[in-house]
HTH-type transcriptional repressor AllR (Pseudomonas tremae), 280 residues
Amino acid sequence: MRILSVRARPFMHNDLLPTEPLTSKEPTPTGTQTLLRGLGVVQAVAGGARDLKEIARLIGTTRSTTHRLASCLVDERYLRVVPQVGYLLGPKLIELGFQAREEVPLAMLARPYLDQLSELTGDTVHLAVREGDDVLYLHKNPGRNGPEMRSRVGHRMPLVRTGIGKALLLDSAQSEWQRLYEVSMPASGRNPLWPAHEQQTWAQLQARREEYVQGGYAFDLEDNEPSIRCVAAPVRDASKQIVAGISVASTVPYMPLEKMAELVPLIKKIAAELSADLGG
């Protein structure tokens, strides 16, 4: 049952009491009907209804029935009553919300979205989180295009040198980006695995950071290793904090700059859908 947001009038104490006799002429509801009505009360309060009259109007029951339902929900802590305000969502819902989030592993919840990205792009798809100064890969769907990438589940990479790492940093201050850039830079200034590969400068990363923060995405333009490019976006939870990142990656022949630009709306859309599943 979908309850639209409402503009409630100022709450009066008498609104907690039904104006009708508690003995209603409504037929006795079945267990399923009672459950749905109780859920309707919770959704009405979540949508902004604060008094019995408004809740009853939204769920289509009498005020006496609404009063019984609301009183039961208050007793069980699914709702609370605040003087001069009215009905609000209760602490039990907060507890259940956190429990629901903890019970579903992020990688399991993300799997359908990652599979969708794989199907649509044919490229390697990653899910990762931040762990200290590194990216920690939680899931990988190998791509159909080009050679397999060396990333692995449980593998770590420097945050600012990967697209998915930059996506995880979109809410972080510039000073944090600079710190991470400095700690990730090899002492020699060259990556020992690819000594001939040019490292991005702080000035280049700083300029790109501004673009990424404004656009809500991030690129890896061969910043971590030669010939690897990726497009990434952040995933947010109910608190709107970035809790993970997803990316689409491939080698340069399969990931030209034009394709990267085209992938931005898609990966942002998939990341937003996953965020919605997390309450974000």
Observations:
- Residues 1-14, 17-24 have pLDDT under 50 and may be disordered.
- The chain has two domains: 13-98, 104-277.
- The CA atoms of residues 45 and 88 lie 6 Å apart.
